[in-house]
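Example: Thiamine-phosphate synthase.
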Amino acid sequence: MGDIYEQSRAFQPTVHRILDANLDRAREGLRIIEEWCRFGLNSEGLTNECKQLRQALAVWHTPEIRAARNTAGDPGTELTHPQEKERSSIGQLLQVNLCRVEEALRVLEEYGKLHHAKMGEACKQMRYRVYLLETNLMAYQRRQRLRDSTLYLITSPSDRLLTVVEAALQGGLTLVQYRSKTADDLVRLEEAQKLRSLCDRYGALLIVNDRVDIALAVDADGVHLGQQDIPIGLARQLLGPQRLIGRSTTNPEEMQRAIAEGADYIGVGPVYATPTKADKAAAGLEYVRYAAEKASVPWFAIGGIDLENLNQVLDAGATRISVVRAVMQAEQPTLTTQYFLSQLTRMQTMRSLHP
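Written out as structure tokens, the predicted fold is:
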């Protein structure tokens, strides 16, 4: 028994060094996440949770543990990886630091048991809180980006699919839905993966039409469901709380039902007759006016909207629109996207000045 005690004391400085390094790592990662919650998302709740976690960790970062630090003799300070030198997006930056915090807390949980009886359990509970923070942060960020998006491009089959979508992204597009009703699944998967990479590069959201499985496979930001697709509740079970779910609606009853079932956003239309929805009668501008007055979630007017009738839709109360052919078949997708966005911004500015 005495030998075990002596061995434990001999290893104590090493344990303290491990605890010090991982307390630093976890607190630094949380601070990086906190800054985005505060300045990027303006979320008081998420910012406060990061701050509370940092303060809870600080309680365990005692002078005794700090005194074991030996930066000059730490071989890990010279180790690096090429992926650590670049970040392609805010999403990747947040994900990397969330993983860093979670890994550090796991180390603290295990080695903390050798330091203090309560430290392991405390770090275990903090790790679960960070898992929840990760879910809430991803969900909050996606919903905020959705609210900020005024133009929603829905793709149609095209040999120029990626070229057109990238041109629209270059014009300021921030929301894309991949829609392909006839392609083989392998083709859909490949195209969705390529669109995912494109959207990541430009900081845009990617939604997959109908197919929850493909949305999950390519780590899309969500899925869009028609009236005949699976229930929103089932899609939520499969996708989890952090992804977006949209629902097409053609009348007030469908709208209210979609909102009650938990849709993050809805499509309102078709406003005009469109070959994309050949079996659907036009809902008309009256439904747009109803949505402008009654919808409690973000909504996008959709169906046959183009440069010629855009002002009619905006005058009816729309502040967000979805388009297909108007961009997918445009000779200059970038300029067309910029024009749509400029008109939507102009209308939002006018309404804010004259509510």
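The chain has a mean pLDDT of 92.
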